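User: Predict the structure for this protein chain, please.
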Amino acid sequence: MTAPEERPLQYDRLDYTPLPKSVALARHRAQRLVTEWGHAGLAPDAALLVSELGGNAVLHGCLRDRLFRVELALFARRLRIDVSDPRGELLPRPRDVPEDETSGRGLLIVAALADRWGTMTRTVGKSVWCELDVPPPTAPRPTEPPRPTAPPPPAPHTP
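Assistant: Here is the predicted structure, written as C-alpha cells:
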C-alpha cells in the first residue's frame, strides 16, 4: 500500500510564450504568489529559480509556437517549482563553464540555491523541478505581563 499523495496548500500553473519577456513575467508572478502565500522570505529565491529554469526553457527547450509552463506548489514543508517545455530529447545537466563565458551557469545556480532539484521526462517534453524547504513556523512569543512601574518617590514629609 502506498502513502496517499500529498496535496498542495497552494498551487499555480501558467503557460508562457517562449520569449525572454515571459521569463520576467514568470519571475515576478512567482515572487508575488510566494509572498501572498505567506512566505516572503522564500520569494526572492523562488523568483531567481523560476528565472533560471524559465530562461533555460526559452533558450534550449522551446519549439516554435510551443509554450513552456511554470508550476508552483506550496506544501507544508516545501515549495516546488516545476518548469516544463516541449523538448525532451536532451535532459539538462550542470556543466563546467570557462571563467570567460558569460552564460551556462543556470543549473549551477539552481543546484546551489535549491534544496533539491531534478529532471523528469514527460510524454511530450521534459520538466526541470526544484524545491525549497519551507521553514517551520515559529512558535508565537508568549506575551509578557506588563512590568510594574516604579512607585513614585515618597512625598516630602512636612511637620
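The CA atoms of residues 16 and 68 lie 5 Å apart.
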